[in-house]
Amino acid sequence: MKLLSKILLSSALAMTLANATPHTLDNMHTDVGFSVKHLMITNVKGNFTDYEGKIDFDYKTKTFNALEAKIKATSVNTGIEKRDNHLRSDDFFAATKYPEITFKMKSYKAEADEGVMTGDLTIRGITKEVELDVEDIATIKDLDGNNRVGFTLEGKINRMDFDLKWNKALEFGGVAVSETVKLIIEVQAVEK
Fold it and tell me: What is the total count of domains within the chain?
């Protein structure tokens, strides 16, 4: 009976992986963005401009079997050079010592055209498990006949968990930069 169970489990896993197809990011149509509250009153938005990723996506079930990403910390961009240089410094990303931010999916729970992705996020050499909401999953065949998938990843992290601790207290209470960082990642990937 145990042998039969193992064979059935192996067959099911093989069929699941057979339906998954590898994809690469279309960097021209992907945005790795974030937003953080500044001076307790406005959101400062930014993104990273240098990244790569691999995705195994199953078109039949609209589920993810794998997602891995590497982001160059030096590519942080908020549109203001002085702030970007500060973010690259030891006060935040310490980009010279820790040049890459990585994410590796551990599990995916599907809910229709949405889901929740759990994975390990590493910033400044510190790895924490995070949950990202996956929304707006859509597929299409592009103008060249390639299969594409698009989706949005959203979540929140506490930057203090990753030793991004710089801050200043404000005279009338509060701090210069919120501890909570919103992640907003718009992805388009093309089947290899």
Answer: 1
